Amino acid sequence: MGQKVQDTILKEAKKAKYFSVSIDSTPDVSHLDQLTIVIRYVLPLGPVERFLTFLPMMRHTATHMASILLNFLKENGLDVTNCRGQSYDNASNMSGRYNGVQAIVKRECKYAAFIPCCNHSLNLVGDQAVNSCAGCTRFFHFVNGLYVFLSESTYRWQKLKNRCTLTLKGLSGTRWCERADAVKALVEGWKSIQEVLDELAADKEQKADTRNQADGFSRRMDELETAVMATAWNDILCRLNSTSISLQDPTVSLNTATSLLASLVDTIQFARDRFDVYEQMAIEKVPHGEYKAEERRGRKRKRMPDEGAANEENLTPRETFKTHIYLVMIDRLLAELEKRMKAYEDISTTFGFLSELTSLSIKQIENKAQNLVSSYPDDLEDTLVAELIQFAAFMRTQKSVSVNESAELTMYKLLSSLNLSQTFPNVEIALRIYLCLMVSNASGERSFSKLGIVKGELRSSMREERLNMLALMSIEHEVLSSLDCTDMIEDFALAKARKTVV
């Protein structure tokens, strides 16, 4: 049954011709690195992402991983020259410009455009912002430390649950959705959490160390700086998390992903001017409304004879926090977002006009279509220009437009449903190439979750073939449910039939 599922997926991919590939690795319960291979191709109803297999991996070098991928594609009849996209994380062995996996695959197929995983890029944006200043790092250490302190004791955790509707969460180095949940729970349960800490600090039945820790966390929550960081990060992480969830959709298109990332720039720029708003929200949690002044005397720099006193920086605690922590954090977020978005500029510029096709002039369509043909000369013909001009006029006559789909997917479905592929063959090919581009490797991450279920501690000695077949049937259960089991039963009966003794 598992082999039948894999054969069906491979058959669909060969019929679709163009595909994108994504690989990632993780160690399983038996400490064997498993390399997952996921491909994306376009069916008449739209793009799909399919898991193909887990393959054991001995080394993490780009050459070794690329050879595993290329050998698997060759053995299963998938021509690498039809690969039009590849999406990996931002690790150097994967994304290296000269010696990474994407560079090696690109030597085999020059049209295999590398698209860094949008979700991983978004995580790196947040990670770089947190590490940009000591104030941000201390804040998230406080959030994680508060969770550890309250969760390591069932008594403390129960006191917290009795008062708060949202429980605190621990932090993950890679999953920023957990940071969003953790900060949201802290903001919404601020007063209740502080009351629990004060009760623990005053409880004489608790150990001295426990009382001291509770008192320390309560003092941190009584600092205005902590409250401002919590309210600001709550808004920012909410937007980052919502965007990340949308990017994990297997059907999301590159233009949509790029637009979502660009919208975050405006959102964070808006947050840059909202310091006063966050401060007022923080004062509601910390009524004294005062920033923590420096307790130790600052170092006085020796001035040269030609320097005046005007060069000295005399900032209030509020100005110091805003300038050295808050604005640094926001500016780093903006800089990292703009830096990560540059990785998608070329491919987005090449195909981006398709979503605005009906609003472009004939001259604009001509210029952009010629650029698309020059990018894929082996796939598209010069007649694409005339086809797109006619197709744009045809699309303007269509009334029904789905708000739940991208413009490119609506166009492709229209071509398929009306059997217009022969009328607009190059348009159909261009849309297929674009829609097969993978923008994240979230499907690969989901396969790791299934790997942990299929190959658990009680089945750690499972053979690779059995692991792959069980994982295939579980992950691609929709394909399995659509198959006719009659042929599979007959094949199984013939394969296992015993010889008759005469």
Automatic annotation (TrEMBL):
Chain ranges of the HAT C-terminal dimerisation domain: 419-478
Entries under Pfam families matching the protein: Dimer_Tnp_hAT, DUF4371
Highest taxon of the lineage: Eukaryota
Residues in coiled coil: 193-227
Domain DUF4371 residue range list: 5-100
The entry's keywords: Coiled coil
InterPro entries: DUF4371, HATC_C_dom, RNaseH-like_sf
Protein name: Uncharacterized protein
